[in-house]
Amino acid sequence: MASVRIREAEEGDCGQILRLIRELAEYEKLSDQVQISEEALRADGFGEKPLYRCLVADLPPAPGDAQGPRVVGYGLYYFIYSTWKGRTVYLEDIYVTPEYRGQGIGSKIIRRVAQVALDQGCSQFRLAVLDWNQKAMALYKALGAQDLTEAEGWHAFTFDGEAMRKLAGK
């Protein structure tokens, strides 16, 4: 296998990132929830005040391949703030295409996010995983992550669409 490179995403990667977002949603059995567009990814990640950052794992093109590198994984993250611990990175998504799993690409992305977190003065980085994804949980624990549901009993909640509008009185 050719060597995989982990790099900061560029605006031109948004189409491939969207492809991977859709693959991830399908893997998580949540395809119907993907509403993001390539244009929104561009505006929100590469505008004047980016709302997220993204790492991509890509393979160099094969000799004679005019298409350029193929993105086979990504990690989309952003900065949040913990009132207990301060600066924090939140890894919203990490995904590697099935044919490239088990080759350390996900671990490389996670390690790079840890480097970013430390470089930015963060005390931690967080992520969430579906309860049935035992392989991912095993990887995160092997890399040193603590399961906050097990350790502290935290549950994640969201206010979406109509619930937000009701709360806001709109």
Q: Key terms for this structure?
A:
170 residues, alpha+beta, 6 helices, 5 strands, globular
Descriptive report:
The protein is an alpha+beta fold and 170 residues long. Helices cover 35% and strands 23% of the residues. The protein contains six helices and five strands, in the order βααβββαβααα. The chain has helices at 14-27, 38-46, 105-119, 134-142, 148-152, 161-168; strands at residues 5-8, 53-59, 70-82, 86-96, 124-127. The protein has a five-stranded mixed β-sheet, sandwiched between helices. Strand 4, helix 3 (105-119) and strand 5 form a beta-alpha-beta unit. Helix 1 (14-27) packs across helix 2 (38-46). The termini are far apart. 20% of the residues are buried. The mean pLDDT is 93.
Give the secondary structure arrangement, pairings included.
Layout: E1 5-8, H1 14-27, H2 38-46, E2 53-59, E3 70-82, E4 86-96, H3 105-119, E5 124-127, H4 134-142, H5 148-152, H6 161-168
Parallel strand pairs: 4-5
Antiparallel strand pairs: 1-2, 2-3, 3-4
Helix pairs in contact: 1-2
**Percentage beta strand:** 15-25%
Which series of helices and strands comes N to C? EHHEEEHEHHH
Counted by DSSP, the helix tally is 6
Give the distance, in angstroms, between the N- and C-terminal Cα atoms.
Answer: 54 Å
What's the count of strands? Answer: 5
Q: Which shape, going by the Cα principal axes?
A: globular
Side-by-side strand order of the widest sheet: 1-2-3-4-5
Structural class by SSE content: alpha+beta
What is the rounded Rg? 17 Å
Report the major sheet. Answer: 5 strands, mixed
Report the uncertain regions. Answer: none
Helical fraction: 25-40%
Whole-number average pLDDT? 93
